[in-house]
Amino acid sequence: MNEFMLIFRHEDGSKVASPEQIQAWMKQTMDWIGSIAAQNKFVLGNGLPFDESCVVWHNQVVTNGPFGEIKETIGGYIIVKANSVEEAVEFAKGCPVLQGDGNSVEVRKIAKRDGVH
Fold first, then answer.
1. What is the pLDDT of residue 22?
2. Where are the alpha helices (DSSP H) in 57-107?
3. What is the rounded CA–CA span in Å between residue 8 and residue 73?
4. How far, in Å, are 17, 29, 83, 104, 112 from residue 22 at the CA level?
5. Are 50 and 13 in contact (CB under 8 A)?
6. What residue ranges do the domains of the chain occupy?
7. b/e sequence 13-37, b meaning 16+ C-beta within 10 Å
């Protein structure tokens, strides 16, 4: 069995949701993660808040925040166990982040510690 990272991409991370919207989204997300955990396929996950972040560029320039010139931000990720990328994609299809226009979930296989894919 392999591990896959599901990366939550938001079209515009600068939009501020209401506390009620955040609470509803968090419940949906916890329920979704719980359904994966019930199959014993959830490994770990974290949100990535927008504060206290920066980008270090190739020329040693440091900019504040994860934004810059792009409209898309990464809001968090989970790692799941799956027998195939297709199974990981099925998990991703249930992610509540997909309710937002332009949002996406990137599915990436994680290389094993020995470097073998």
1. 81
2. 85-93
3. 8
4. 6, 10, 32, 18, 35
5. yes
6. 2-109
7. beeeeeeeeeeeeeeebeebbeebe
CA angle 34, 103, 91 (to 5 degrees): 30
pLDDT reading at 13 higher than 60: no
CATH class of the domain defined by 2-109: alpha beta
pLDDT tens-place string over residues 36-95: 999 999 999 998 877 778 888 889 888 877 665 566 778 899 999 999 999 999 999 999
User: What pLDDT, on the 0 to 100 scale, is given for residue 14?
Assistant: 53
The separation between the first and the last C-alpha atoms of the chain, rounded to the nearest angstrom, is 12
Q: Which amino acid is at 52?
A: E
Two structure tokens written together for 87:
């199974």
